[in-house]
């Protein structure tokens, strides 16, 4: 009887141990929340060319458990080959800039499929502080994606000579631009003058290019590149033509 009891105890202990090992630290729902959290994190911090690629369905992110490690996840991004090629082309035209950025720990993604593993708190789904540092896998991954889309946002912001735009601005975006203009402009009829200005800009630049310009103006380093010079000149001209005096730059 004693042997049977001992055998039963050992069997139960093994079963509970195996059951615990078979139960993942992060289930499918947790992984999906982490995937969305990571995507939202980047959407709120990476320059607008990243958002545009996500909106166009060109970027995908998957989140999975890292093999054999408890509470460790792996994020895998699939990036557009065209975006990576364009980013490399821009930096190849300015090798000094590439060298400076590389010396500061920044580099473009090495391929269209990039991934990183990181520790996570299963109760809060918070990423370990060590893993968000730029010396860690996830930190490096975030920095490389940010560099790619900062490069693209700056490059795409530049207006081509004699360019025109045939893409209608989304109504909500257009209304918001008119409202922002009205809040800081002076004119006999501010709403009419701002509508005139926005309509004039829309004939030349796309809504996305305006988003690139907004990014440039929010980032002193990006603004210093001169990528916004042609847009600034156009904005000043159409503002003058529409009878506007802007209290400050957009």
Helix and strand arrangement:
Blueprint: H1 2-22, H2 28-45, H3 48-55, E1 60-65, E2 72-78, H4 81-92, H5 95-103, E3 113-119, H6 129-132, H7 137-157, H8 171-184, E4 185-186, H9 190-202, H10 207-218, H11 220-224, H12 229-241, E5 245-246
Antiparallel strand pairs: 1-2, 2-3, 4-5
Helix pairs in contact: 4-7, 7-10, 8-9, 9-12
List the main descriptive attributes of the protein structure presented here.
three-stranded antiparallel β-sheet, 250 residues, mainly alpha
Structure, described:
- With 250 residues, the protein is mainly alpha-helical.
- The chain has twelve helices and five strands.
- The protein has helices at 2-22, 28-45, 48-55, 81-92, 95-103, 129-132, 137-157, 171-184, 190-202, 207-218, 220-224, 229-241, and strands at 60-65, 72-78, 113-119, 185-186, 245-246.
- The strands form two sheets. The chain has a three-stranded antiparallel sheet. Strands 4-5 form a two-stranded antiparallel sheet.
- β1 and β2 form a beta hairpin.
- α8 (171-184) packs across α9 (190-202).
- The termini are far apart.
- Residues 5-23 have low confidence and may be disordered.
């Amino acid at each position: 009887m004693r042997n049977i009891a001992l055998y039963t105890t050992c069997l139960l202990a093994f079963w509970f141990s195996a059951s615990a090992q078979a139960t993942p630290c992060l289930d499918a729902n947790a992984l999906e929340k982490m995937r969305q959290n990571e995507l939202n994190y980047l959407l709120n911090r990476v320059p607008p060319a990243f958002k545009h690629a996500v909106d166009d369905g060109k970027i995908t992110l998957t989140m999975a458990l890292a093999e054999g490690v408890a509470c460790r996840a792996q994020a895998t991004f699939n990036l557009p080959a065209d975006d990576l090629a364009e980013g490399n082309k821009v930096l190849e035209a300015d090798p000094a800039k590439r060298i400076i950025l590389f010396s500061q720990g920044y580099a473009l993604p090495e391929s269209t499929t990039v991934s990183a593993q990181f520790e996570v708190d299963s109760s809060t789904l918070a990423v370990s502080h060590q893993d968000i540092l730029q010396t860690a896998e996830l930190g490096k991954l975030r920095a490389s994606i940010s560099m790619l889309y900062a490069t693209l946002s700056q490059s795409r912001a530049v207006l081509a000579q004699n360019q025109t735009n045939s893409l209608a601005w989304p109504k909500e975006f257009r209304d918001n631009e008119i409202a922002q203009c009205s809040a800081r402009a002076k004119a006999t009829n501010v709403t009419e003058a701002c509508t005139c200005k926005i309509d004039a800009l829309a004939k030349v630049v796309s809504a996305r290019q305006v988003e690139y310009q907004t990014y440039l103006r929010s980032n002193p380093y990006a603004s210093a590149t001169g990528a916004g010079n042609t847009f600034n000149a156009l904005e000043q001209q159409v503002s003058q033509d529409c009878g506007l005096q802007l209290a400050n730059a957009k």
